[in-house]
Every structure is written in structure tokens, then in C-alpha cells.
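Researcher: We plan to redesign the surface later, but first we want a full-length starting point. C-alpha cells attached.
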């Protein structure tokens, strides 16, 4: 494609992203179809639990597989974990492998809302915050890519300047491997136009 062609297409994408962000300001839950990330899943697991059990989790460092084993072995202490699907379990364990031990201070009251605020961004948060500036989120969440493909996109000249660190790009890629590839029929009508047409 010519340089001019790319510029024009980018300008069109930018314009539609602006119009779109004005629309969504009034309908925040239009994104409900995008699966929960590790921040919300972990907040749900920790909410209202015993302080010592919480401390044992937030002070530990494990790999994703180790966290899966830990959560399965401790699901009596964290009953919310029993309701997770396999995909949610992996999303949660992956998030824990990137973000624990927790560097921030644990909230004084262990409510779900307090944990949601205290925990670092998850893949869903990063996609919503960093992946809508130039195109609709649909371009991202409908794609089916292996991790190398997601990292490839995030290292293209068009994406390299996005303010995400390398570990954040990796965590986002892992979230998208597990949770993207959303069928277009599951995407709200408002988010389909001009979505994944290229
Ligand atoms: C600074 C503008 C900008 C931002 C921010 C942005 N994109 Fe893009 N994106 C583009 C442009 C331009 C294209 C089409 C040209 C290209 O692919 O390089 C594109 C295309 C894509 C595509 C389809 C092409 C492919 O490689 O599969 C995906 C997937 C994608 N972006 C993912 C993301 C993700 C994930 C984020 C957030 C981390 C993001 N984008 C944020 C500019 C942006």
C-alpha cells in the first residue's frame, strides 16, 4: 500500500475512533462482552477472605502452572475460584504470575471494590485503555492469534510507541490468547461497524 493510502486509512480510523469514544461515554457497559481479566477475578477471589490466607497469596511468587495448582488446592479458602471456568482459571493464574507478589499496599478493608482498586491493570484493562485510540476495540478482541502474533502486532511501527512496558505487552498478549477471538455475533451492534474489516 502507498504511503498516502496508509495515511488516509489511518486518518479515517482516527476519526471513527473519536466519534466512537463520544458514543461510548454514555454506555460504559457496552464492553461487558469482553471477558473479565485477572484483576477482577483476583478481587473476587480475595474479597472478604481471611487475612492470613490473603497474605499468603499476595506475598508469593509462582509461575502460572504453580498458581493453577495452588488455587485448586486452596479452593476451600477461596470459594469464588470454584466457579471459574478453565479459561478464567488460566486468565487468573497468568495475571497472578505477572503481578504477585503485590508491590502496592493491600487495602485496609478486603472488599471486592477495594481490591479492584488496589490491584494492577489486567489484560482487559490494558486493551480498553491502550487499544482504542486509533481503532475500535473490535479490531483487537475478534482476532485469533498465537502469542507470537500478538507480540508481533504490538511491535509493529504502528504500535511500538504505545506506552506499555515489555512485561505488560506480554501479559496483554497472554490475556488475548485466552480471551480474544470473540465471534462477531457476540460483539454489540454499535461496535461492529468498521470493526475487523482489514
Ligand atoms: C497509535 C495508534 C494505534 C493504537 C494505540 C493501537 N493500534 Fe492497532 N492498529 C493501528 C493501525 C494504524 C493499524 C493498521 C495498520 C497496521 O496493522 O499496522 C492497526 C491494526 C491493528 C490490528 C490488525 C492488524 C494485525 O496486526 O493483526 C490489531 C490486531 C491491532 N491493531 C491490535 C492493537 C492492540 C492490541 C492495541 C493496544 C495494545 C492497539 N492495536 C492499539 C494503530 C494503533
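Model: Full-length starting sequence:
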Amino acid at each position: 500500500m502507498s504511503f498516502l493510502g496508509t495515511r488516509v486509512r489511518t486518518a479515517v480510523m482516527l476519526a471513527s475512533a473519536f466519534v466512537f469514544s463520544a458514543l461510548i461515554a454514555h454506555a460504559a457497559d457496552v464492553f461487558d462482552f469482553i471477558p473479565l481479566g485477572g484483576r477482577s477475578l483476583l478481587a473476587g477471589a480475595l474479597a472478604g477472605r481471611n487475612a492470613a490466607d490473603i497474605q499468603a497469596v499476595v506475598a508469593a511468587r509462582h509461575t502460572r502452572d504453580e498458581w493453577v495448582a495452588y488455587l485448586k488446592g486452596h479452593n476451600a479458602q477461596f470459594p469464588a475460584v470454584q466457579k471459574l471456568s478453565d479459561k478464567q482459571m488460566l486468565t487468573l493464574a497468568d495475571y497472578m504470575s505477572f503481578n504477585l507478589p503485590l508491590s502496592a499496599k493491600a487495602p485496609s478493608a478486603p472488599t471486592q471494590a477495594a481490591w479492584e482498586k488496589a490491584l494492577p491493570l489486567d489484560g482487559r484493562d490494558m486493551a480498553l485503555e491502550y487499544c482504542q485510540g486509533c481503532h475500535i476495540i473490535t479490531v483487537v478482541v475478534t482476532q485469533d492469534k498465537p502469542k507470537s502474533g500478538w507480540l508481533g502486532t504490538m511491535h509493529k511501527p504502528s504500535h511500538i510507541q504505545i506506552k506499555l512496558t515489555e512485561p505488560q505487552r506480554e501479559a496483554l498478549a497472554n490475556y488475548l490468547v485466552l480471551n480474544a477471538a470473540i465471534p462477531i455475533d457476540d460483539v454489540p451492534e454499535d461496535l461492529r461497524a468498521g470493526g475487523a474489516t482489514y
